Amino acid sequence: MVSWKCLFSPTLFKDLTSQYHKETSYGLALICGSRIELDGCPYYPWAEAHQRNIDLEQMVKESLRWGEPYIVLDNRDIYVWTVPISLNNIILGGIFSASHEKERLGAREIRVGAAARLLMNVVCRENICNSSLMKINSEKGRNSAQHAEIIHTSKKNPHQHPREIYLRDEFELLTAIKKRDREKAREIINRILVGVYNLGRDNFDILKTLVLEMVVLMYRASVERGADSRELLGVNSSYFKDFHEVTDEVALSGWLTSWLEDFINTSFYSGSISPPPAIALALEHMKNNLSRELTRDGVARYCNMSPAYFSRVFKEKTGHTFSDQLNRFRIEQACFLLDDQSLNVNEVAFRTGFNDQSYFNKIFKKHRKITPGAYRRQSQLQF
């Protein structure tokens, strides 16, 4: 009997799993029939696949049949995908992966699609499947009127327009937002985006257009139901500026994840509910860590906010950009340290987070109109 071991070694599989995890955050498992041979994806209970309404053997057969990664959604809302490993036309098993139990918002569908295609590329590159046969089957599938859905999300008839997809779940979504049930809102948005992704999965330009239309639909519907139009418009404006620069699914995933997070934040806190005191937390964190490397994105994560939303709210609440406020704090601290004669100017710069003294001098002069050395001399005369 032909074994998978004639194609690759456990060491190679371990290397492939490590590289795949670095690029996608997902693991890999080698499964032959119902037997788990190598498990580099321990966060998914492969032995319980049947209880989760997944037929692993059939998934491998369907992947070979259509010449594409085969993706299903189990009854716990986890995506599982596979590509076959084969010797000539003999299927030896499949390499599987799965999404994580808690992933952010609906951009998960785009991430999973990209990860599935990457897995396909890896398997073909390592020559552990019949890539020629997969390509032929893929072409046949694309030309067939009976081409099966690659992402199985429900047994309902597919919707043909984003508006239909959205209207199906609009009431439930707006109810969740009104009740401030974040988890329910995320779940519904996930479901909406599954349908959108299916409509545009074969063409990135179409997918991008559908996503944009969905964003506009959600914005209009929320405003009509009483959300603060100025707040939501601020969210949309800041994101639409970047949307034209999105050129692939990875970038679209990041853009959509951030937008949805801010959409929920704004929807939840519009009206009489004030935003959480995250900016005060950010300012305190900045003051306590001036000697360390601080970035807008890092502080935003510390406050559990997306970078774009954080920047907008930070500017509104403080009147300054993040970088400008950080430099203000650092220069204030530098002035205090310059009074300590045991520290030279370079040490003061380092202790306030400036690794380059010339840049420190430039920023100091911008805020104090004199150089650090001149400030120290002036301070000594006054003292």
Outline the fold blueprint.
Layout: H1 10-24, E1 28-32, E2 35-40, H2 56-66, E3 70-73, E4 79-87, E5 90-98, H3 108-125, H4 131-143, E6 151-152, H5 162-178, H6 182-200, H7 204-224, H8 229-243, H9 249-269, H10 278-288, H11 296-302, H12 307-318, H13 322-338, H14 345-351, H15 357-368, H16 372-382
Parallel strand pairs: 3-6
Antiparallel strand pairs: 1-2, 1-5, 3-4, 4-5
Give a brief rundown of this model.
With 383 residues, the chain is α+β, with helices and mostly antiparallel strands. The chain folds into three domains: 4-152, Beta-Lactamase, CATH 3.30.450.240; 162-269, no CATH class; 275-383, Homeodomain-like (Arc Repressor Mutant, subunit A, Orthogonal Bundle). Helix content is 59%, strand content 9%.
How would you characterize this protein structure?
It is a single chain. The chain is α+β, with helices and mostly antiparallel strands. It has 3 domains: about 5-150, 2-Layer Sandwich (Beta-Lactamase); about 160-270, no CATH class; about 275-383, Homeodomain-like (Arc Repressor Mutant, subunit A). The chain has 16 helices and 6 strands. The chain has helices at about 10-25, 55-65, 110-125, 130-145, 160-180, 180-200, 205-225, 230-245, 250-270, 280-290, 295-300, 305-320, 320-340, 345-350, 355-370, 370-380, and strands at about 30, 35-40, 70-75, 80-85, 90-100, 150. A 6-stranded mixed β-sheet has the order 2-1-5-4-3-6, sandwiched between helices. A hairpin with a 2-residue loop joins strand 1 (about 30) and strand 2 (about 35-40). Helix 2 (about 55-65) packs across helix 4 (about 130-145), helix 3 runs antiparallel to helix 9 and helix 6 (about 180-200) packs antiparallel against helix 7 (about 205-225). The longest helix is centred in the middle third of the chain and has 21 residues, at about 205-225. The termini are far apart. Residues about 145-160 and about 270-275 have low confidence and may be disordered.
